[in-house]
Amino acid sequence: MNHYKSASEQLAQLQSGETTSVELVQQHLGRIEAVDGNVNAFLEVCSDSALQQAEEIDRQRAAGEKVGRLAGIPIAIKDNICVEGWKASCASKMLENFTSVYDSHVIEKLKAAGAVLVGRTNLDEFAMGSSCENSAFQQTNNPWDLERAPGGSSGGSAAAVAAGMVPLALGSDTGGSIRQPASFCGVVGMKPTYGRVSRYGLVAFASSLDQIGPFARNVADAALLLESVWGHDRRDSTSVDVPTSSLSDQLEEPLKGLKIGIVPEHFSNGLDDEVRDKTEQAIESYRSQGATIQEVELPYAKYGVAAYYIIAPSEASSNLSRYDGIHYGHRASSDGNMSLADLYEASRGEGFGPEVKRRIMLGAYALSSGYYDAYYLKALKVRRLIAEDYQKAFQDVDVILSPTSPTPAFKLGELVDDPLKMYLNDIYTIGANLAGIPGISISAGQTASGLPVGVQLLAPAFEEAKLFRAARMYESANSESRLTPAM
Amino acid sequence: MTLSTEDVQKVAKLARLKLTPDEVEQFAGQLGHILGYVEMLNEVDTDNVQPMAHAADVTNVFRSDEVQASLPRETALENAPKTDGKYFLVPQILEGS
Questions:
Q1: Which architecture characterizes domain A7-257+463-481 according to CATH?
Q2: What angle do CA B29, A207, A406 make, to 5 degrees?
Q3: Which of A397, A405, B3, B96 is the most exposed place for a label (fewest CB within 10 A)?
Q4: Which of residues 273-302 of A touch B (CB under 8 A)?
Q5: Is the ipTM of this complex over 0.85?
Q6: Which residues form a coiled coil (chain A) (predicted)?
């Protein structure tokens, strides 16, 4: 069975001629066929175009042509990333019939690297949510326990990788939307430094926070995927022109004298006991490898969720004003008496789901006259204090370790009626988005009932190489960190 | 923190969102609850703190002023809900024309 092999192992098989890309893609399509009826990770599987791409790669290999770093490897794409000729629905009725007319920067890069695009994965509508329950089309189930949430918003990508449907997937992370589902599904998920990966072609949610990042079943694969998609792009004016160093080359070198910061408050109220145990075991594992553990203070971290839920909805209310029923997206049926404003309101009222409306409303309120200073401006100031917290902490330590999420995967339906409780799921992940720093979630074992638990590492801006090496140190010493669900 | 249904309706108007009476009712409660939580930001002394609008330290990123190809008209209109092949069609906005 190839479906639980890593991308790196699959690449080796392709290079040695042991298998072909067509075989590999067929195996994964077969796996999707076998399990996705239960998991519902994919909104659409593009078998024909995937097999065509695979054939082309096989032909190039056979002819001895130079092929890209991911040549022949299947990958799934979160459905808020534009692929030319594919739908990009954002799991919203608003964009149900929208077809992308160009490739995102990351898709151009993936195509150049020879990756085989297998399909579009489910998400919370417009990437707003932590459970995939806000998708307008389907509920993705956690491969470890189908009655539980896969996390969100990139739950489809996380579940697809966890269940062996693809070795790699792309997601996007605005407040934890890659790392939290990675922890719920027992895979590796990584959010790069803000500006590392171009947002050109990523459907905007909160532009100062959104970043595209990799899902994989191990750290090396995540590094390989990030290296394949990052880099400067002039079409995204926040894409930073900072040199990228190889992540893969030094990955196996442990960091000598690694200093790990932990924040005492992270281990206090609200943290599930088993998640605490697993996090503490991870700390012990690092200690046994010679790392020093040091307490650091992030005094403003506790305001992260509050600041985020003003800033992200404010940006969303502005970004999503483009959906007016005129240029693209859902348009309400109109009669002769309908004014333009009526048409906007009806189209948006019909096209958006409840969580998206809630956030647009929250943002519009925070930005409205009389409240702007009290909410939006205040949140931006607190954001700076939160970012400065991290800068100070990183003067003393190399990385900060915490749980990724306060609990393992929760039951579907458990939090849907309590938006605020759902938002508090992001308590450990949100700071990285506010501060713009990179973070990774790696598997740190399972609970007694068999649910994966993730541990998060954060590093200073642009220190991805350090982050990946630190993550790999844990993984190499803990074989149980590579988990596969029984399905 | 409570939000009245009138507050919700006013914001919905600003956001150009048509809400059902049930949604108005529901949002009044939920948004009030969330804004109540957010009020903890008032504990923080932010005098002399500059607002941070962006994580990346880049300003005034300009491209050179060169003419470049953009989406062809038919491609730009491909996803339009209503078009005559040349323009996006909207309801009449001027009276008597």
A1: Alpha-Beta Complex (3.90)
A2: 55
A3: B96
A4: 300, 302
A5: yes
A6: none
